[in-house]
Amino acid sequence: MAQKNNIRSIRFSDELAELIDRQAGDTFTAKFETLITRCVWELPKKEEQLADIQRRIDQERERLFNLQEATKELRQLEQDIQSAQRCFAIVEQRAKAIAEAAEQDVTQSSSPAQLETRHDCVTKGRKRNASKKL
């Protein structure tokens, strides 16, 4: 160890004395030097590590926020799709009711020959629509 030319007398609290005594070293001077060395050399590194950890926490918080927002948007989209499905079901029911009413009206006001001609036209139209969907 280097020669110690600095002799000082200091006063400090019992709490500080306990803190110094908990440091590594055989003598009070060695323990005091360990404490000062750790504060000067290790503390800045620990502060840098802490700042890095805090940056990562902030990034993860932002990522979590973005995921939560995306989840909200997906839930809203799901609700919109379900609402559209219900609306389409209602439209489908109404279309069937209109078609049935129109067919009943046609059957009540037409002769058997006219009905067969109309039935053929409707059947051909349905087949064409079915082939278009494919």
Structural summary, described in words:
- This protein has 134 residues and is mainly α.
- The mean pLDDT is 85.
- It has one domain (14-133).
- The protein is rod-shaped and about 125 Å long.
- The protein has helices at residues 14-21, 28-109, 112-133.
- The longest helix is centred in the middle third of the chain and has 82 residues, at 28-109.
Outline:
The chain has 134 residues and is mainly α. The longest helix is centred in the middle third of the chain and has 82 residues.
Secondary structure blueprint with pairings:
Layout: H1 14-21, H2 28-109, H3 112-133
Question: Helical residue percent?
Answer: over 70%
Share of β-strand residues: under 5%
Structural class: mainly alpha
Number of helical stretches of at least 4 residues: 3
- What radius of gyration results from the CA coordinates? 43 Å
Which whole number gives the mean pLDDT?
Answer: 85
The helix-strand sequence is HHH
Number of strands: 0
Distance between the termini: 90 Å
Biggest sheet architecture: none
Q: What would you call the shape?
A: rod-shaped
Give unreliable regions as ranges. none
* Count of the domains: 1
Which descriptors would you attach to this protein?
mainly alpha; 134 residues
